[in-house]
């Protein structure tokens, strides 16, 4: 099993963020999970045939500091992630880099220096909103262009829209994820940036369920454009939802991903999501592709 969406909050980076805001964990209580920070404990919970592609939780430096400091924090965090992977490549074969979204020039430099030619760094993680802007804001376009050119994927993770007063983890992130996907399609990013690869969390959120609404309201061209996304299986054990994701995005575009160690206490949802795949009506060939094959093809495919 290669889990493409597994989160961490490394100790050095956490210590730096706590120096900036000592209440950061109190404000994000779901991050008080020892398996995010204690890598030895994390390894002890993993199954022998399990690998994880590590990405940061959404504790983003640009939300706390200026652009120069955000870039410094991201660079150091990416180095710490790489060190974790280097110490245990059999469990963590690759990591996903952070970018300072309030310093695009330095974000581009980080892609050049830490991502493009680095076999330990599989791609970069972006969020559905950054510094109060939609991820498709024109100021962020250079990042999409650069990543499309690199051939490495973007991981797209949801965050709350802070303009709203009723955000909740159950529904809001799925809504925000869906909106960001719609914005990417509406702005023709897959045409504008040939070769662009985006891995979306939570099985594509609302898109598979509302696929026919997309077709009849937005038209066939946009309906087909949504199928360019890659999605994971992080829906906390819903076999039918995973089947719908495969039906819409295609068996080549669904990757095993769990959100571990979050979602189900104490050790995360890996076993539950694996079981949901095992119990699904997908073929053995499709399951094998989701567990390992699609990831291997994705990282080998340049453009």
TrEMBL record:
- Whether Lyase counts among this entry's keywords is yes
- Gene Ontology cellular-component annotations: cytoplasm
Name the PANTHER family for this protein. 2-AMINO-3-CARBOXYLMUCONATE-6-SEMIALDEHYDE DECARBOXYLASE, ISO-OROTATE DECARBOXYLASE (EUROFUNG)
- The Amidohydrolase-related domain covers 2-294
BP GO annotations: secondary metabolic process
Gene3D superfamilies registered for this protein in UniProt: Metal-dependent hydrolases
Which keywords does this chain's UniProt record carry? Lyase
**Protein name as catalogued:** 4-oxalomesaconate hydratase
Single GO molecular function: hydrolase activity
């Amino acid at each position: 099993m290669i889990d493409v969406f597994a989160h961490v909050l490394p100790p050095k980076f956490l210590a730096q963020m706590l120096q900036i805001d000592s209440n950061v964990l109190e404000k994000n209580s779901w991050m008080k999970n020892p398996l995010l920070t204690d890598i030895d404990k994390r390894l002890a919970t993993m199954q022998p045939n399990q690998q994880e592609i590590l990405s940061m939780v959404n504790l983003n430096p640009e939300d706390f500091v200026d652009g120069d400091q955000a870039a410094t924090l991201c660079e150091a965090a990416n180095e710490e992630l790489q060190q974790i992977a280097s110490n245990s490549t059999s469990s963590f074969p690759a990591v996903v880099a952070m970018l300072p979204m309030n310093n695009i020039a330095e974000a581009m430099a980080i892609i050049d220096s830490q991502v493009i030619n680095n076999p330990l760094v599989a791609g970069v993680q972006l969020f559905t909103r950054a510094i109060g802007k939609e991820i498709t804001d024109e100021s962020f376009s250079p990042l999409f262009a650069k990543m499309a050119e690199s051939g490495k994927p973007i991981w797209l993770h949801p965050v709350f829209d802070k303009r709203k007063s009723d955000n909740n983890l159950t529904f809001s992130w799925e809504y925000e994820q869906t909106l960001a996907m719609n914005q990417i399609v509406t702005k023709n990013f897959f045409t504008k940036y040939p070769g662009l690869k985006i891995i979306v969390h939570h099985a594509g959120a609302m898109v598979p369920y509302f696929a026919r609404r997309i077709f009849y309201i937005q038209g066939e061209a946009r309906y087909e454009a949504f199928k360019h996304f890659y999605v994971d299986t992080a829906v906390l054990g819903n076999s039918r939802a995973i089947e719908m994701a495969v039906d819409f995005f295609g068996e080549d575009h669904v990757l095993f991903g769990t959100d571990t160690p979050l979602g189900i206490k104490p050790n995360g949802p890996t076993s539950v999501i694996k079981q949901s795949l095992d119990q699904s009506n997908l073929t053995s060939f499709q399951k094998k592709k989701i567990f390992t094959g699609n990831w291997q093809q994705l990282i080998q495919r340049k453009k």
